[in-house]
Amino acid sequence: MTSTNRHEANIGAVREQAEIAASEGCDLLALPEAAGMMNRDRKDALSRTTTERDDPFISACRELSSRFGIWIHVGSTPVQENGKLLNHSVLIDRSAAIRARYDKIHLFDIFLEGRPASRESDRYTAGTEATVVDTPWGTWGLSICYDLRFPNLYRDYAKCGASVMFAPSAFTVPTGRAHWKPLIRARAIENGCWFIAAAQVGHHDDGRVTHGHSLVVDPWGEVLADLGDGGTGHAILEIDPALADSARRQIPSLENERPYRLVHLKA
Fold first, then answer.
1. What pLDDT was estimated at residue 145?
2. DSSP SS3 for 57
3. Residue 104 near residue 145 (C-beta atoms within 8 A)
4. Taking 70 as the threshold, does the pLDDT of residue 47 lie above it?
5. CB 100 within 8 A of CB 87
6. Which member of 33, 61, 120, 193 is catalytic?
7. Does the active-site annotation cover 104?
8. Helix, strand, coil distribution of the chain in percent, nearest 5
């Protein structure tokens, strides 16, 4: 997606994709981070957001799930709680029920040389709970974008039996070129799991430019879908959850993990 700073256009874009997904017999539609609204003006974002219950984007996704009989992973959208913004994700089943919620834990506060600092924490409050959820296709783990740089989150999910991880993103172009695909592949390989990583792409009306390259990566680290950076679009493919079990049997790193004592030898 190339999400705007207003809900309405983004709802229209998702409606088109939900229609396509349903016509192709898909079970799941996966959206990127900030799918509902991409707006770095905190004052304006606060004026246009509300609670999860009343959020227009989440409500629209619930209606589309019910109408088309598909699950929708919302990616994320900003919502308010106690007057603060959360980078909020929900997983909606085909009956429009919200089956899982996740607020982005690790906020994108970075300082690239030669570029202005990026401080997501100036706009958002960090989440405090990691989330795994049982589905008809197995256990899934939820995350958002910058969480990728914190491998213990996915290790914990894998230890809970998660075979599919979601990592919706709005990666910047410099960090995306250098790290996006390697991070996704590494997390998939080291945990023997699927990664579904829908992404924002292109020039946004809040001034940002995002890397694109929505990915699906299998538990062996093979990239099965890469939507590139040429514009919006979709990929349709079938995921076999059993491949996670196969990868973990062949390389049982979850079972081989050992406790250790760290020794710091000082000069």
1. 96
2. helix
3. yes
4. yes
5. no
6. 33
7. yes
8. 30, 25, 45
Per-residue tokens: 153: 């989150």
Residue from 26, 61, 104, 193 carrying the catalytic annotation: 104
Q: Give the count of beta carbons closer than 10 Å to the beta carbon of residue 241.
A: 17
Active-site pick, 26, 61, 120, 145: 145
CA dihedral 48→29→125→187, nearest 10 degrees, is: -160
Report the amino acid identity of residue 137: W
- Phi-psi category of residue 25: left, alpha or beta, with phi > 0 → left and psi -120 to 50 → alpha: left
Quick check: is 193 catalytic? no
Report the chain's C-alpha Rg in angstroms. 18
Answer yes or no: are the C-beta atoms of 70 and 234 closer than 8 Å: no
- Clarify whether 33 is annotated catalytic: yes
126-129, Cβ contacts within 8 angstroms, sequence gap of 24 or more:
127/86, 127/87, 127/102, 127/103, 128/103, 129/102, 129/103, 129/105
Fold of 7-254: Nitrilase/N-carbamoyl-D-aminoacid amidohydrolase (3.60.110)
Task: Examine the pLDDT at 118 and tell me if it is beyond 80.
Answer: no
pLDDT digits (tens, 9 = 90+) for 64-77: 999 999 999 999 99
pLDDT reported for residue 35: 98
- DSSP codes, 195-222: EEE-B-EEE-TTS-EEE---EEE-TTS-
